[in-house]
Amino acid sequence: VQLVESGGGLVQPGGSLRLSCAVSGFTFSGSAMRWARQAPGKGLEWVSDIFSSGMTTYADSVKGRFTISRDNGKNTVYLQMSNLKPEDTAVYYCAIRGNDPRGQGTQVTVSS
After folding, report:
1. What is the pLDDT of residue 50?
2. What local confidence, expressed as pLDDT, does residue 74 receive?
3. What percent of the chain lies above the pLDDT cut of 70?
4. Cα–Cα distance measured from residue 110 to residue 89, given in angstroms and rounded to the nearest whole number
5. Quick check: 52 pLDDT over 90?
6. Between β-strands 44-50 and 2-6, what pairing exists: parallel, antiparallel or unpaired?
7. Which of 4, 13, 53, 74 is deepest in the core (most CB within 10 A)?
8. Beta strand spans in the chain (E)
C-alpha cells in the first residue's frame, strides 16, 4: 500500500490550494478515504472522509471551505481548500479510512 500526498505550499490567508493523494496497492474504488492534518505541537486531526459511494463528511472547522473528491480512474483523492486561515497550517495526510496515515504528508502553511 502506498499513498503519496502532494500540492502543499505557502499561501496567504484567504487563498486556495488543492492537495492530491496518489494511491496504489489496494482496491481504491472500493475504499473510503480520509484526509487528516497535524498542526505543530498538536495531535492528528480528522478533516474529511469520502466513501466509495461518493458521500462526503467534514470536520466543522473546514465545512464550507474544503471539498474532498476522488477520481477512481486515476486512483487519486483530492482536497480542495479555499478561504484558508492561519489555523489551517499543518501537515496534511491522506489515509484509508480506519487506518493510520502511511505517507510523509504535505505541508500547508497559511501566512501573510
Report:
1. 98
2. 97
3. 100
4. 5
5. yes
6. unpaired
7. 4
8. 2-6, 9-11, 17-24, 33-38, 44-50, 56-58, 66-71, 76-81, 90-96, 106-110
Report the 3 state secondary structure along 19-47: EEEEEECCCHHHCCEEEEEECCCCCEEEE
What's the pLDDT at 61? 97
User: How far is it, in rounded angstroms, from Cα 111 to Cα 37?
Assistant: 17
| The three grid cell numbers given for residue 71, joined into one nine-digit string | 477520481
- Burial pattern 1-17, b for ≥16 Cβ within 10 A else e, equals eebbbebbeebeeeeeb
Which amino acid is residue 20, in one-letter code? Answer: S
pLDDT(101) > 90: no
Q: Which CA distances in Å does 38 have to 29, 55, 59, 68?
A: 26, 24, 14, 18
Question: And the C-alpha cell for 60?
Answer: 466543522
**Which cell numbers in the block locate residue 104?**
510523509
What is the dihedral angle through the alpha carbons of 85, 86, 90, 93, rounded to the nearest 10 degrees?
Answer: 10
